[in-house]
Design a protein that fits this description.
CATH architecture of the largest domain: Orthogonal Bundle
Strand content: under 5%
Distance between the termini: 55 Å
Number of helices: 15
Helix content: over 70%
Structural class: mainly alpha
CATH class of the largest domain: Mainly Alpha
Largest sheet: none
CATH topology of the largest domain: Tetracycline Repressor, domain 2
Shape: globular
CATH superfamily of the largest domain: UbiA prenyltransferase
Length: 293
């Protein structure tokens, strides 16, 4: 139940993206600041998720996808859930403060306010809250980059942030297409009252094509430097492009959106992994070349 309350898998991916941003910088290594960053971001994300479920318990109770969450089923009371959320967020922010970077702490605090304040409020006003909400996913890699000493306006991190934004929007839309009835029964502004499922499918495809283009540019413009990394990313791009083509040509059922949703997230997990280890692959290759030479 704790993993459902905190959406542990998603919180792990958020923390991993922060680590990727840290290791993406030439000064980043597996050290104490990296561990504090990962733990802090994971706890903050887990706490924000728990708080969101406390905020939206009424909405979650109406949807198939969320009706088994612990605050909806009564496994935990609203008070207990809020206490868990508060404890996780407090410890998470404390760990971010202990990294020694006030900027990282403030970015974490801003992410919390934006997600549980602005984004959660906007969801009750507009079905397109995902657009400003995408900023939440872009902040953890920026936190890692800044902690390593990077300039937040440097082109490499801006490219990485743009790729994450291009992923987050179709990520949400594919989830909505997988559970179309949830959009209608949630009590929130109905996305499908503003845009048809077929048109949303097409928009999702356009965003994913833009994502593929962005990752492709990053892969061959020097953002990814190791040959092995480039090969891995190229294969992943081709696989996702193939899945997207099949989705566009033949698959219209909600389950098809669910399959593409899974593949899209798997692709991004692999992308974060490549970003995190690419520099080390380059350094290892140079070392091996020196030994052989």
């Amino acid at each position: 139940m704790f993993s459902r309350l905190t959406r542990a898998h998603l919180s792990f991916l958020v923390a991993f993206s922060a680590l990727a941003g840290y290791l993406f910088h030439p000064n980043g290594n597996i050290d104490l600041p990296a561990l504090l960053l990962c733990a802090g971001v994971w706890l903050l994300s887990a706490g924000a998720s728990a708080l969101n479920q406390a905020q939206e318990r009424d909405v979650d109770s109406r949807m198939v996808r969320t009706r088994n969450r612990p605050l909806v089923t009564g496994h935990w009371s609203l008070i207990i859930g809020s206490m868990i959320a508060s404890a996780l967020m407090f410890v998470g922010l404390t760990l971010l403060w202990l990294t020694g970077s006030s900027t990282v702490f403030l970015l974490g605090l801003f992410a919390l306010v934006w997600y549980n304040g602005v984004y959660t409020l906007l969801k009750r006003i507009t079905p397109f809250a995902v657009l400003p909400g995408a900023l939440c996913g872009a902040l953890p890699p920026l936190m890692g980059w800044v902690l390593a000493g990077g300039d937040p306006t440097a082109p490499p991190i801006l490219m990485l942030i743009a790729i994450i934004v291009l992923w987050q929007v179709p990520h949400f839309w594919l989830l909505a297409l997988t559970y179309p009835e949830d959009a209608r029964r949630s009590g929130l502004p109905d996305l499908f009252a503003r845009i048809s499922p077929e048109r949303l499918r097409h928009l999702s495809i356009v965003w994913i094509v833009a994502l593929l283009a962005g990752v492709g540019i990053a892969n061959f413009s020097g953002l990814v430097r190791a040959d092995l990394s480039r090969i891995i990313v190229t294969v992943a791009l081709l696989l996702l492009a193939g899945a997207l083509t099949r989705y566009h040509r033949t698959e219209t059922a909600p389950a098809a959106s669910g399959r593409l949703f899974f593949r899209l997230n798997l692709f991004m997990t692999l992308w974060f992994a490549v970003v995190a280890v690419d520099r080390f692959i380059v350094e290892m290759s140079v070392t091996l070349s020196g030994l052989i030479g």
